[in-house]
Write a structure and sequence with these properties.
The complex is a heterodimer of chains A (about 110) and B (about 120). With about 110 residues, chain A is an all-beta fold. Chain A contains no helices and nine strands. Chain A has strands spanning about 10, 20-25, 35-40, 45-50, 65-70, 70-75, 85-95, 100, 105-110. In chain A, the strands form two sheets. In chain A, strands 1, 3, 4, 7, 8 and 9 form a six-stranded mixed β-sheet that branches. In chain A, a hairpin with a 6-residue loop joins strand 3 (about 35-40) and strand 4 (about 45-50). Chain B has about 120 residues and is an all-beta fold. Chain B contains no helices and eleven strands. Chain B is globular and about 40 Å long. The chains are: A mainly beta (about 110), B mainly beta (about 120). At the A-B interface, strand 3, strand 4, strand 7 and strand 8 of A face strand 5, strand 6 and strand 10 of B.
Chain lengths: ~110, ~120
């Protein structure tokens, strides 16, 4: 159960789009369409923003979107806003009632 | 509305055990799986395990096998996570989180977190 691989940091200017990748294996990301993405502001509990690869919970802006190709999932944030600057984590079902998280990505809005 | 309220901060000595509680309200307790996730200071999220509050199913991360036990009290709508043989590196905020709908989906509702500090 190795952690999924995310870039440590990404950045973009307001109004632009950024994409955060999440690379796993055929035993997790590549094997199931059960990838989730979380946004976490400092000192706060994580917030679910994408589940089942592409679905958005109620209340999450459509600026956030998810996709997957093979063993790599991606989170795209379009129309970047200052409040998007924080940490993002991916997670995947890994079979047998186990899950795994990515190491996290810090998004900087320039 | 769905709420998960966790127990308070704890300070433990190395080798001790800690039991963190997570009281659920606003939904049918036994219908949704609960995840436990921890976050060490300045570090990322780490998945620890999952349980069906009816008690029928649990799954633990390999790293914690033999040290973690997840249980529930349906009469109190509360789930518990007990971690034994604590080490300083177990110092972290421990979160409980409820699945969106199916167990395979993400954790859509989170508790406020419980800080566990391990120090001699």
């Amino acid at each position: 159960q190795s952690a999924l691989t995310q870039p440590r940091s990404v950045s973009g200017s307001p109004g632009q789009s950024v994409t955060i990748s999440c690379t796993g294996t055929s035993s997790d990301v590549g094997g199931y369409d059960y990838v989730s993405w979380y946004q976490q502001h400092p000192g706060k509990a994580p917030k679910l923003i994408i589940y089942d690869v592409t679905k958005r919970p109620s209340g999450v802006p459509d600026r956030f979107s998810g996709s997957k190709s093979g063993s790599t999932a991606s989170l795209t944030i379009s129309g970047l806003q200052a409040e998007d600057e924080t940490d993002y984590y991916c997670s995947s079902f890994a079979g047998g009632y186990t899950w795994v998280f990515g190491g996290g990505t810090k998004l900087t809005v320039l | 509305q769905v709420q998960l309220v966790q127990s308070g901060a704890e300070v433990k000595e190395p080798g001790a055990s800690v039991k963190v509680s997570c009281k659920a309200s606003g939904y049918t307790f036994t219908n949704y799986y609960i995840h436990w996730v921890r976050q060490a200071p300045g570090q990322g999220l780490e998945w620890m395990g999952i349980m069906n509050p009816s008690g029928s199913t649990t799954g633990y991360a390999q790293k914690f096998q033999g040290r973690v036990t997840m249980t529930s009290d349906t009469s109190a709508s509360t789930v518990y996570m007990e971690l034994s043989n604590l080490r300083p590196e177990d110092t972290a905020v421990y979160y409980c989180a409820r699945a969106v709908e199916m167990a395979t989906q993400g954790a859509g509702y989170w508790g406020q977190g419980a800080l566990v500090a391990v120090s001699s």
